[in-house]
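I'd like us to work through together how a protein chain folds, taking it slowly. To get us started, please write out a protein record for me. Go ahead whenever you are ready, and we will take it from there:
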Amino acid sequence: MATTPANLAPSRPPISFWQLAGVAGVLTLLAAALLVVLLRVSRAPLTALPERQPGMDRPAPAGGATADQNPLLLGKLIPGPGQPANIAGAWPGFRGDGRNIATSRVGTQWKELWRVSLGEGYAGAAVRDGRVYVFDYDQTAQADALRCLSLADGREIWRYAYPVKIKRNHGMSRTVPAVTDKFVVALGPKCHLLCVDSETGEFRWGRDLVQEFHVEVPQWYAGQCPLIDGDRVILATGGDALFVALDLATGQVLWQTPNPRGWKMTHSSPVPFEFAGQRQYVACLSGGVAGIAADDGRLLWETDAWKIPIATVPSPVVVGDGRIFLCGGYNAGSLMLQLTPTGPQELFRLKASEFGATQHTPVLYQNHLYGVRPDGQLTCLDLDGNIRWTSGSANKFGLGPFLVTNGQILVLNDDGWLTLAEANPTAYRQIARARVLTGHEAWGPMALVNGRLLARDLTQMVCLDVRP
């Protein structure tokens, strides 16, 4: 009896001519049926196209996200009746060009020029070419709104608003835009980064930092202010990257700094400086402080000697010779770092009762630091950590902002009382005082341009003529 080898399959009988003919007939019938279906479809009535939704004709933001993923693309430009003022000078972003130092001489009699209502928050103003830029939240429309106002009378020139739901949480908006002659960039409460034309308000690009870089929105919403440095935007994002540099014109990523320790964004803003011939950016993140090379984003140094478990709000103050002053609230006090070839070293540390800052960054002026410490007293500190004077228990300013101009310091307290004092290391000397805001929580950063002072409380902004 013959057997078939185990590795061979039995042979199949050959296919006959009649079997092939049957297959061909079936294929012919199928082709005829398909032709009938196509003819019927071609004669069917056309269905209506879906209605175009707002944002469908917008270009995708940098990174390729769609309108469904990025509410910035659903924004609308809304023109207003305002006109730019013919007033020279600029305050182009957070703390101005001079890190809260201006040159205007301030008089002792102040006149209100205008005031406007704002959504709840602490967002300060940027100013350029007679325009005031403020990031706001419209609770009725449930939309973030970058507003452009006239420096002359406060009337709105335009606003760019996009939908996002924000719940009240100690205010909502709290960042300061950054503006150039062509662009204005602003960061929203939930980390939406918007860039529009600074003159017309037309949309240029937008990035959702949470979606694209896995940024975690800080407690009480985003408080970091974007930095424009030349042709790039710098952010200390945390998330996928420690720092990010974006092209100002397009929003495209130029470089990212790796973040292997998973540090998170804080309310502290990045600061540029030069050390040992190298341009750097420094910022405080959740796990410490880092210095980044400006040219390619590589990490130059880092330290975990300074971190605040609740909220890091003040920005670093670069005081020269590689020294960086850091301060905070929640009993953190302050710390002076010294950069060295082997890394940062601690020069001195002060207790909160000596010097700290819950909210606003101290001002470096003529080799002294001026700031409001946690007990509310205005304090002058030298660069070795010695207290030169305090304003005393009878002169407390809470969490309000301050700036220095031409040997004077302007300080706003929580309830809208504005104080003018001398900025010198000898003693605290008050020059003038008046209430300029009637609300509460007057915490937003101030701006001073050509004798016009912009200040705000929780729900309104005022423009004062403070010229002598």
